[in-house]
Amino acid sequence: MTQPAAAPPARHQEQADHAQESSFRGRKRNRRSWPWAAGIAASGIPAGILWWLLAPGGLNLVSGNAALASGTNTEVWLPRDLVLAGLFLFAGCLVAVLLTGRKDAGSRRMLAASVAASGAAALLAWQSGVLAGLWFGGPQDTSASASVAFSLRSYPVLLLWPAAVAAGYFAIGLLGFLRKMDR
Hints:
Blueprint lengths: L9 H33 L1 H11 L22 H24 L7 H29 L23 H23 L1
Helix pairs in contact: 1-4, 2-3, 2-4, 3-4, 3-5, 4-5
């Protein structure tokens, strides 16, 4: 005769239930971080178009100086990169502030996802700005050099957005910690 299977002890059943519940919570957290990261990455497209609208060599809405409208003028290269750097610093600080306001802001996964998505957003911003320059910009004389079209000259600028997210998150967390210490 066969004996019916013995029920697992209650302690083992509780541990199994806890492990399953913990796994479910982890998957639920992952589902919440993807829309956040996708939103950050997608924000690179309007940032790139804004870069083209504001920067010298693009539509040049900041200065309006017609002499700075051409990419062949080497004097516009630094201001064009600085406009993108300013946009990246602003966007990184904004992401850091929004990240600290989230309920799950303290998780390393959310911080890592935010920094990685900010890196992707920086690349998208650069490429969408270049694409806007190709589509909407006037014809450029690139006979002397192919590098005179609307583009980025200083590639380390691309690191500013994710660096601003990490540094801003750290600074806000440190200020919150110091505020708690004063009480």
